[in-house]
Amino acid sequence: MTVQNATHLTLSPIGVVRAEGGAFRLEVAPPYRPALAGLEGFSHLQILWWFSGCEDARSRASRTEEAPYRHGPALLGTFATRSPRRPNPIALSCAGVLEIDRERGVLVLDYLDAEDGSPVLDIKPYLPSLDRVAAPDVPGWCAHWPASVEESGDFDWGAEFSF
Fold first, then answer.
1. 138 vs 69: CA distance, rounded Å
2. What distance in Å separates the CA atoms of residue 13 and residue 68, rounded to the nearest whole number?
3. pTM of the entire structure?
4. The TsaA-like domain covers which part of the protein (predicted)?
5. Contact, 27 vs 52, CB < 8 A?
6. pLDDT value at residue 116
7. Each residue of 48-85: b (16+ CB within 10 Å) or e?
8. Please, are residues 148 and 135 in contact by the beta-carbon 8 Å criterion?
9. What's the CA gap between 92 and 72, in Å, rounded?
10. E strands along 2-151, which residues?
11. Alpha carbon separation from 130 to 16, 43, 120 (Å, rounded)
């Protein structure tokens, strides 16, 4: 990220998401492949990616969401949601690592909630000592959601989201 001035930033994607036929992978651009060294052994990664379908002025002007969750409040602030419509359409996903090919710059993941072609902004290892909260509090309307990413696979997310 290069700071141009106090109000504008320039982001340079490091790669792209490939989501085809139920398979998920990141393709890391050649200049960034050396940064993959040492990822072996991490079971999960934090992926920062760009909601490329929400770059329009209307999506970026969104500050509230009307009934974004079927069991939630009628109105929530954008920062209380996982909506792609936000001032900066940056997404954060945790994904399990199935394979790493540093030479080709390919990371095969178990799942990623990004569309094919979405730009990847950064990759960070998931570290339980920094990323896991043992007993987080959540509002009552989402307290019935799974307690972990491992439990999320069988959950009916379609019955929860309105966006």
1. 14
2. 28
3. 0.88
4. 11-135
5. no
6. 97
7. bbbbbebeeeebeebeebeebbeebeeebeeeebebbb
8. no
9. 21
10. 2-5, 8-10, 15-20, 23-28, 44-50, 64-66, 75-77, 90-101, 106-109, 119-125
11. 26, 15, 22
- Token look-up 């696979």 returns 153
How far is the C-alpha of 160 from the C-alpha of 4, rounded, in Å?
Answer: 40
The predicted-structure confidence for 48-102, as pLDDT tens digits, reads as follows 999 988 889 999 999 999 999 999 999 999 999 989 999 999 999 999 999 999 9
Tell me, what's the pLDDT at 1?
Answer: 41
Return the H-helix or E-strand segment holding 149: helix 149-152
Per CATH, which fold does 13-64+87-127 belong to? Elongation Factor Tu (Ef-tu); domain 3 (2.40.30)
SS3 151: helix
Both structure tokens of 115: 């569309």
Helices (H), 39-144: 57-60, 128-131
Nearest to 53 by CA among 112, 113, 118: 118
